[in-house]
Amino acid sequence: MLDQILSKIRLEGDHALGHHQNVELSSAFQAIVSLPHQRAVGYEALIRGRALDGSVVAPPQLFESAKSLQDLVYLDRLCRALHLQNFKRADSRDNWLFLNIAPEVIVHGWRFGIFFAELLKLIEIRPERVVIEIMESPLLEERQLNRSVDFYRELGCLIAIDDFGAGHSNFQRIWRIKPHIVKLDQSIVRHAVNNPVARRMLPNIVATLHEAGSLVLIEGVETHEEAMIAMHANIDLVQGYYFGTPRMGVQDAEEARPVVAELFGQYALDIAKRSGRSRYPHHIQAMLVAKQALQTGAEDLESLDCIRQLLALPGADRCYLLGSDGVQIGGSVLADHRYGTASGRFAPLAAGNRASWLRRPYLLRALQGSEDVHLTRPYLSVATGRLCVTLSVAYPFGGSPRILCYDLDHETLEAAPIDDAMVIESAAAL
To answer: Which helix (H) or strand (E) holds 199?
Structure first.
């Protein structure tokens, strides 16, 4: 089949063109940018079709024209051969080429003979430069999927799961096949723009995929806001019109550098705004004062002026003490004007006395040896039914540390104005 496919490809200038059923085929490449490296490190190959009358034939229409499985395998292989030839001529670096394979071809292509290994050898592209994108599909039974993944992995190619987060994608498949790259569906970044919960969850999804051993790419990034969501989620690779449109040749690898550099500048400002130093300067200073008072041996929080001063600050909800074992010492001291009370559905969890908070980030960070004030990410408070953040600081007490914890209402403080001078100072220090 290889000779038959190559006979349908001709050179026209520096670009190879294919021909299939009165449709002229060409390649377009869209840059895939590494945010840390601030440049393109790969390109996704996209098929372009044009009928004899000049009208555009969209990829779905092109592949729907295949009347049998054999026709579909042939067309899929023709597209890949065309992309590889054009990429060979266009890219002088060691960048990746991302290739899509139709799900049906993943399942049944082996029945039509060896093709891809011979094609790579003929065109002289090393397999490790090729990323095979496997689209999530109900057609892909685990046994069939594993067989295909094993073939491309043993060949030396990288494996990417495409459109993760949409349709039939699931983490179980990620854990089983261990892809080198996971491409998050563009719907994820769209949801994150409009849904604060989705935006807060995205970094955790990315962290889970990183722990599974995969790089994470998000596609369909079209706006500055979407690009910044990718920055804050610790995404490795980005793709979309914001970083470059598809073109017949490959985009210069350095073209995205000014765009990404601007994102890093904005990221530094955003981090400074979110940091306790700029958002909670008065709360942090009051915590340090309270720590000094508690180091003298005081234990009754309710009787201390420094605790009353903490609870009088904007957004304050409660203060409480933990031992080094994470067990809460006594009850919580509440602010007079709290911003919410827990629903009755959380009533069994409301009382904190003798509860163990050993697994909480605010305790673990405070016990790491630093006597600085630590700040958590927002989380649901079962005491108020609202998002809160916790400030914590450790201090010596009778030979073992104790930890003062201070809960703030995140929803209230998030809307509060920020000291711009402190933001700029904090960003300059990053």
So the answer is: helix 196-211
CB 31 within 8 A of CB 43: yes
Strands 387-397 and 9-12 turn out to be unpaired
Task: Reply yes or no on whether the pLDDT at 338 is more than 80.
Answer: no
Sign of the CA dihedral 61, 96, 172, 228? Answer: negative
Does residue 300 register a pLDDT over 90?
no
Element spanning 366, H or E: helix 361-366
Give the 3-state DSSP-derived string for 255-269, with helices as H, strands as E and coil as C: CCHHHHHHHHHHHHH
On whether the CB atoms of residues 234 and 215 are closer than 8 A, the answer is no
Picking from 146, 97, 143, the residue whose alpha carbon sits closest to that of residue 119 is: 97
Q: What is the CA angle 156-102-70, rounded to 5?
A: 105
Q: Under a CB-based contact definition with an 8 Å cutoff, are residues 365 and 392 in contact?
A: yes
Three-class SS string for 267-281? HHHHHHHHCHHHHCH
CA 383/CA 341 separation, integer angstroms: 6
Give Rg (Cα) of the chain.
28
Record the tokens describing residue 418, joined without a space: 């920020």
91 three-class SS: coil
User: Mean pLDDT across the chain, nearest whole number?
Assistant: 86
Cα–Cα distance for residue pair 268/20, rounded to 1 Å: 51
How many Cα atoms occupy the beta-carbon half-sphere of 47 within 13 Å?
A: 27
Integer Cα distance of 319 and 342 in angstroms: 16
Round to whole Å and give the CA distance between 159 and 15: 27
Q: Look at the chain and count its residues.
A: 430
- Lowest-confidence range among 150-159, 173-182, 333-342? 333-342
Q: What is the pLDDT of residue 264?
A: 94
Output the pLDDT for position 45. 97
d(CA 361, CA 376): 7
How far is the C-alpha of 234 from the C-alpha of 108, rounded, in Å? Answer: 37
Rounded Cα distance between 266 and 398, Å, is 45
Which two structure tokens, joined as six digits, stand for 379? 């989380």
Residue 56 and residue 50: Cα distance in Å, rounded?
A: 5
| Cα gap 127→304, rounded to integer Å | 68
Spell out the SS3 assignment of 54-77.
Answer: CCEECHHHHHHCCCCHHHHHHHHH
